[in-house]
Amino acid sequence: MRCFLEDSPSETHIVGYYEILDRLEKDDGVLAAVYHSENNTLIYRTTLTKKKGKFSFVPHVNGQLKFCYQTINGGSWIYEKQRLRFAIRYDHLLHS
């Protein structure tokens, strides 16, 4: 699992755009989870199974968010030696 931290104000609409760079087999994908970094509360979770796409959510907390990604294979976790490369970009859209 790979994680990184990012600051985000409360009520900001976050849109993630992703592209899986390796070949996808049936049931392969990436589990994406977002946690509040202070108390590890799960804020958002989804499974990315298409080659390219987007997802969005609105965190209702201020502060740092921890974005974590884990590759999955056929519904089971992939071991450390097996990797699935992907690219991701986020846009933060402030509510007016």
Care to give the gist of this entry?
The chain is mainly β and 96 residues long.
What portion of residues belong to β-strands?
over 45%
Give the oligomeric state. Answer: single chain
- Low-pLDDT runs of 5+ residues are none
CATH architecture: Sandwich
Q: For this structure, what is the CATH class?
A: Mainly Beta
CATH fold-level topology: Jelly Rolls
> What sequence of helices (H) and strands (E) makes up the elements?
EEEEEEEE
SS elements, strand count: 8
Please indicate the count of domains.
1
The N- to C-terminal Cα distance equals: 35 Å
Query: What is the typical, i.e. mean, pLDDT?
Result: 81
DSSP helix fraction: under 10%
Shape type: globular
- The radius of gyration is 14 Å
The helix/strand class is mainly beta
Biggest beta-sheet profile: 5 strands, antiparallel
Number of helices: 0
